[in-house]
Amino acid sequence: MADQLLVSTRKGLFSARRKGGSWELEAVSFLGDNVTLSMIDPRDGAWYAALDHGHFGAKLHRSRDRGATWQEVGVPAYPTPPEGHLEKDFLGREIPWRLIRFWSLAPGLASQPGLLWAGTVPGGLFWSEDCGDSWHLVEALWHMPERRKWAGGGADAPGIHSICVDPRDGNRVVVAVSSGGVWHTSDLGQTWSAHTEGMRADYAPPELVSAPESQDPHRMVQCHGAPDSWWIQHHNGIFRSTDDAMSWTEIVDVKPSVFGFPVVVHPKDPDTAWFIPAIKDERRIPAEGQVVVNRTRDGGRTFETLRRGLPQAWAYDLIYRHALDLDASGECLAFGSTTGSVWISENQGDDWSTLAEHLPPVHAVCFA
Amino acid sequence: MPSVAFTRNLQRHVACPPCVVAGGTVRESLEAAFGLYPQVRSYVLDEHGALRFHMAVYVDGVPIADRRGLSDPVPDSGEIYVMQALSGG
Chain A window 96-125: which residues touch B at a Cβ cutoff of 8 Å? Predict the structure, then answer.
């Protein structure tokens, strides 16, 4: 079971450890700064923290001593647009060719030491072969004509928030875009194709409801032990794939809601996944003021609503897409909220304990 | 020679004490300062060399006009001040 948790917040990166059977906060890095995302690389134990300094831009820091010291490393750079080029999304809003924010970080496979992937706003995918010291744009995806149909979803500009590296073949990568669909490459990024059959986007004009670029996956995960199985928490609901993300089946009639942002899947059991529902897109709060977690153990046919240890009155915590994590054992879950609470379960969500109640707004959590 | 001073908010992240540099334009002067403090560049300029949206540069108390090319002239004893543009409340 995991013994380390990183909590990325609006005002710093907090770390918690499991000691004597309970979890405790033990340290903070970058106190006062906006840490939007963190990652622990299972290959070498390095920690990564993405910061958004606002005035000073997005930065990336790496620690090789579990947060005792940090080194600022490289950040992705967008290409210089052609002279006079002004890119706009299909709604006529400018899409700048410059790094706004890291929105996802993913390590390559154990057979690809040093390889990292980064998804960014506005819609760039970058790779590094030196643990983040330098970055390269995945040119084919950026220059793909269909990318121009992507639009802002979770941010003003489109962004890549989920990067799944196929555990069977590190050249196969699938990314999810908010909003812009799900895109596959089998050749390490040289060619890309969209696969969103079965998804629907009720918020889009009727003729675009099924268009790949209309789809707004909020978060996408792949089961490592059964890598043909995938889950997506979509703006429009919950979708599942059992054919390696080639087509998707909508899961309906989930109480209290099919709306939400995060999803995690058990590392070995593809039928077991967790979601954190909010009422719906125009009311992004828990139903009835009760924080709950939904778990399916049968591939989405049924769900249990888990609430033991979670606040069940006057609670309006929203959980962002990267703010729920599951450890490698599949037993330990943690999530953090926009109102600064963090909860941990060591029995797959049956029971929850409170790690913190007064942290800054939580962007993301990750286990070591 | 022009002097360059950076906001204290920036010095919280990277060391960049005031310096005196050679340069006839804002670009030349800042490039000389970045030669002393290479890490500061990406905090002040974006990846295309333009001034970040929420940053401001003053020369002798006057905001520069060319935020992209940084071509504004700097007098021989000019004072360049790099600060945050106020945003939010």
Answer: 97-99
- Retrieve residue A37's tokens: 């995302």
N-term to C-term CA, chain B: 36
Per-residue pLDDT of chain A (368 residues; tens, 9 = 90+): 999 999 999 999 999 999 988 999 999 999 999 999 999 999 999 999 999 999 999 999 999 999 999 999 999 999 999 888 888 887 788 899 999 999 999 999 999 999 999 999 999 999 999 999 999 999 999 999 999 999 887 788 999 999 999 999 999 999 999 999 999 999 999 999 999 999 999 988 899 999 999 999 999 999 999 999 999 999 999 999 999 999 999 999 999 999 999 999 999 999 999 999 998 888 899 999 999 999 999 999 999 999 999 999 999 999 999 999 999 999 999 999 999 999 999 999 999 999 999 999 999 999 99
Distance CA A117, CA A135 (A): 9
Helices (H), B22-78: 26-36, 41-44
Q: What was the ipTM of the complex prediction?
A: 0.86
* Interchain CB distance below 8 Å, B42 and A97: no
Residue matched to tokens 């809003």: A93
Task: Give φ, ψ of A93 to 5 degrees.
Answer: -95, 140
* Domains in chain B: boundaries: 3-84
Residue of chain A with shortest Cα separation from B41:
A56
Contacting residues of B for A78, CB less than 8 Å apart: 47-48
Contacts of A80 in chain B (CB under 8 A): 48
Tell me how far apart the alpha carbons of residues A114 and A130 are, in angstroms, rounded to a whole number: 5
Interface test with A, best of B48, B83, B84 (most A CBs within 10 A): B48
Provide the CATH topology of domain B3-84.
Ubiquitin-like (UB roll) (3.10.20)
Q: Do A56 and B44 touch (CB under 8 A)?
A: yes
> Could you tell me the pTM of the whole model?
0.95
Which residues in chain B have their CB less than 8 angstroms from residue A55's CB?
Answer: 9, 52, 54-55, 84-85, 87
Closest-CA residue to A267 (of A235, A226, A239): A226
